[in-house]
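Could you help me review a protein record that somebody else here produced? What it holds is a sequence and that sequence's fold in C-alpha cell form. I have pasted the whole thing underneath without changing anything:
=====
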Amino acid sequence: MNRLSQIDPAAAVGEPKQMLEAVRAKLGVVPNMMRVLANSPAALKAYLDFSGALGKDSLGAKTREQIALAVAETNLCGYCLSAHSFIGGKLGLSDAEIANARRATAPSEKTDAILKLARAIVVRRGELDDRDLEQARSQGLTDGMIVETIANIALNIFTNYVNHIARTVIDFPEVSPGVGQ
C-alpha cells in the first residue's frame, strides 16, 4: 500500500492533469510512480523535463535503461527494477542484458564502463578518484558521456527514493531486488 497518495488522472485538474494526460498519451497508461509524483506538480514537471532532456543524450535509450537497472539494483528499488526491466525489454534488451545491467556489466566495453562508473558513483556517493575517471576514459567514455551518466544516475536516484518513501505499488511485472548481484 502506498504511503503517499496517488493522484487519479481522471480527478486531476490543471497542470497535473495535462502532464498525466501527456504521460498516458506516450505510454498508454499512467504508472503509479507518476501518480505519486503528481502530488507535486513541480516535482512531476521536473521529472518529465529532465527525463525528456536526457532522451536526447548521446548514450541512447538502451544504455539509459541499463543505467536505470544498475542504479535500481544498487539502491534495492523494486518498483524501478520492475519498471526498467519491463521498459528495457520493450526496447529490445534481452533477459541476459537486463540481468547483466543489474550487476553493472555488459558485453560492450563502452556500456560496461558506463555501468561500472554508475555503480561506483552510487556506492561512493559521487566521491571518485582520478583512477576511476582514467579507467572510464580508457574504455572510450568522453567527458560528455561521463556527465550524461551522472545525470541519468541523479534522475534514477530521485525515482528510487520517491518509490522507497511512497512504497509505490508496483504496476509492472514484479522484479525483486537483490537477486541480480
